[in-house]
Amino acid sequence: MAAAVSGVLAGYVALVYVSEEPAPLEAATPSRTIVVAARDLPAGAILRREDVETMSWPGSAVPEGFAMQAGEVVGRGLIMEVHRNEPLLDSKLAAKDAGGGLPITIPVGLRAVSVEVDEVVGVAGFVLPGTRVDVLATVMPGSDRTRTTTRIILQNIRALAADQRYQQDIEGEPQYVTVVTLLVTPEDAETLTLAATEGQIQLALRNTLDGDEVETSGRRITSLVTDVGRRNAPAASAVPVRLADPERVIESYEGGSRTLLKFGRGGGR
User: Fold this and answer.
1) CB burial class (10 A; 0-12, 13-18, 19+) of residue 196?
2) Do 82 and 37 touch, CB atoms closer than 8 A?
3) Which of 100, 205, 213, 261 could form a disulfide with 46 if both were Cys (CB 3.0 to 4.6 A apart)?
4) Residue 54 DSSP code
5) How many structural domains compose the chain?
6) Could you give the CA distance from residue 92 to residue 89 in angstroms, rounded to a whole number?
7) 221 and 122, same structural domain?
């Protein structure tokens, strides 16, 4: 009896299951067409038609601020670099008719200051756009060279650009001058300009992942000699040792006779 009831119940459940209409599958989100970069593009570049292309993108993963047609982005400047197949979002583009180049890459509230450097100051050409540097200044107050001091005046400063330009030397001959453009606050712009005018500056390249700042008291020229003296000083005072007087011998001749006279320490015979 129990087996019969179980069989009838199982048949009824199966009949209900097959008789119900299957629930329709949830419609997939349609893909969208968005505009992406056709190649790697630097910050400040003005987009041309050949710089962009369209790509099908999953509708559920479309980023905010995307463009659907090339005409929406062509002619606008990039405020940050983009890579191939990267979506050209509105947050990466300058306003329309704002142009391109360096000015549009400067964030609001900051300034771009250019300084002339040579191969030494510019860290042998390793200061490139996007790298981070510290700025050291060497200044001699007045005419007393012993007061010459070097100190870090700016830390973790981003380099916006590094290029070369021609200028004439004192004899009118053209020469290359390397110019590095740094991104600083208005207050730091004053500090950097004063240091470059009244003294000498030096750039120190740093790890772009190292954002820590250090506290230094500067370095005077007199401290170099003092520190060298400390490092070269003996560990303990040397005790002078008096050497014993060597034995002296006087050789004399009288007629055909040869005589040797020996004198020890203190002149004793």
Assistant:
1) middle
2) yes
3) 100
4) E
5) 2
6) 6
7) yes
